[in-house]
């Protein structure tokens, strides 16, 4: 995927603010043996580019000053509530340098799996991307994961995935994170409808309306003493 960038001379908060007003996004290119380069990109073109999956996980061809550079997107800072890219960072790609990148995961086959088709389970995609380590030439566009073998009570973990040649998963903080979980769907039982009871029926048709029944275990009221 290609895009065009331009060098910028000024830096700082004020300069970046004025740049955004003109419809440009400030950025930087770093890495490798060369010095970091301050760049600016047309915001409208960048806004359309970031909506494409390839812009986030594959090697990009950046044209800068008539020269093509191979780079990877490293950071994207968005405005808190506006549809605006505040700043963007790219890293230079060198052929013999192993890189750590995030690659999208594409799932398929879950509708045909026993878990969904016959065992009434809910399949949840816990991870939508994987962090991998490989040389630039080996960076995959995406990781394909077939879920047709999922069954009830069996989740899918990172170490269960067969990665392309030369690609290794990078796991931080967890030994073997869950990629896909399988949860049985519990069907709710409908409660029986309430039936209105006539007060007379509740009292067996005896007694005054509105009279309260005696509490269980209550002693009968004492009879008044006879007059002498």
Give the topology:
Blueprint: E1 2-7, H1 13-21, E2 24-30, E3 37-42, H2 43-49, H3 54-57, E4 60-64, E5 67-78, E6 85-92, E7 99-108, H4 114-117, E8 121-125, E9 129-134, E10 143-146, E11 156-157, E12 168-169, E13 178-184, H5 199-202
Write a structural description.
By secondary structure, the protein is mostly beta strands. 12% of the residues lie in helices and 35% in strands. The chain contains 5 helices and 13 strands. It has helices at residues 13-21, 43-49, 54-57, 114-117, 199-202, and strands at 2-7, 24-30, 37-42, 60-64, 67-78, 85-92, 99-108, 121-125, 129-134, 143-146, 156-157, 168-169, 178-184. The strands form 3 sheets. It has a 6-stranded mixed barrel with strand order 1-3-2-6-5-4. It is flat. The mean pLDDT is 86.
> Nearest-angstrom radius of gyration?
34 Å
The count of DSSP E runs of length 2 or more, i.e. the number of strands, is 13
Broad shape: flat
Determine the strand fraction and express it as a percent band.
35-45%
What strand line-up does the widest sheet have?
A: 1-3-2-6-5-4
Q: Gap between N and C termini, in Å? A: 115 Å
Mean model confidence by pLDDT: 86
Order of helices and strands: EHEEHHEEEEHEEEEEEH
| Low-pLDDT windows of residues | none
What percent of the residues sit in helical stretches (DSSP H or I)? 10-25%
Total DSSP helices: 5
Which sheet architecture does the biggest sheet show? 6 strands, mixed, barrel
Structural class: mainly beta
């Amino acid at each position: 995927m290609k895009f065009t960038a331009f060098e910028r001379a000024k830096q700082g908060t004020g300069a970046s603010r004025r740049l955004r007003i003109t419809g440009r996004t400030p950025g930087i290119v770093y890495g490798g043996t060369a010095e970091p380069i301050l760049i600016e990109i047309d915001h409208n073109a960048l806004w359309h580019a970031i909506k494409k999956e390839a812009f986030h996980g594959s090697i990009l061809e950046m044209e800068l000053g008539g020269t093509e550079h191979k780079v990877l997107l490293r950071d994207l800072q968005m405005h808190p509530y506006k549809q605006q890219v505040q700043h963007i960072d790219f890293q230079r790609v060198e052929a013999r340098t192993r890189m750590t990148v995030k690659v999208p995961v594409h799932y398929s086959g879950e509708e045909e799996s026993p878990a969904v088709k016959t065992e009434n389970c809910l399949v949840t995609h816990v991870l939508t991307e994987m962090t991998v380590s490989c040389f630039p030439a080996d960076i995959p566009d995406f990781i394909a994961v077939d879920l047709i073998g999922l069954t009830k009570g069996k989740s899918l973990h990172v170490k269960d995935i067969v990665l392309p040649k030369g690609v290794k998963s990078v796991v931080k903080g967890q030994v073997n994170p869950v990629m896909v979980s399988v949860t049985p769907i519990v069907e709710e039982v409908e409660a029986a409808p309430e039936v209105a009871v006539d007060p007379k029926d509740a009292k067996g048709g005896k007694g005054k309306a509105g009279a309260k029944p005696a509490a269980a275990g209550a002693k009968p009221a004492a009879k008044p003493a006879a007059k002498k």
